Amino acid sequence: xxxxxxxxxxxxxxxxxxxxxxxxxxxxxxxxxxxxxxxxxxxxxxxxxxxxxxxxxxxxxxxxxxxxxxxxxxxxxxxxxxxxxxxxxxxxxxxxxxxxxxxxxxxxxxxxxxxxxxxxxxxxxxxxxxxxxxxxxxxxxxxxxxxxxxxxxxxxxxxxxxxxxxxxxxxxxxxxxx
Length: 178
Fold this sequence. Notes:
The chain is mostly beta strands and 178 residues long. It contains no helices and 13 strands. The chain has strands at residues 10-15, 18-24, 29-30, 38-39, 51-56, 63-64, 68-76, 82-88, 103-107, 113-123, 128-137, 143-148, 163-168. The strands form 4 sheets. Strands 1, 2, 3 and 4 form a 4-stranded antiparallel β-sheet that branches. The model is unreliable at 5-22 (pLDDT under 50).
């Protein structure tokens, strides 16, 4: 039998976690060996971001009269696992990365109005997810005044009176007047 050197075009195919060699020429197709020629670790890189949730003051009520709130938190990562979390009132200035917890005391910024707290979760592979929740902060209470019979508020000759009401709330707005 004569042995000759033949150059075969080679194609490497990645299937699951092994590389198999296929070679062919114009006349012969050489099937791959039953075992792969190269084993590749089956661990695929974790590219899926973690998941979680953040709820301020357990979601009820939708308004708070204190800057101090409780954050209710979850985090999960099916791939490499949750590594660290961090928090922010503006999504610009963040706390240092820290170990995840299920509840956290948090201080909102002090102005009245809608507040957003941001929560970022990082897994061991470096993937991140940013979540947030909002709440209305009303640390100044509504103000108002009442004037009876604007022409002479000291007394009236009638049992009917005209009430002049003014009210304001710079935070969440006035809901009811009674």
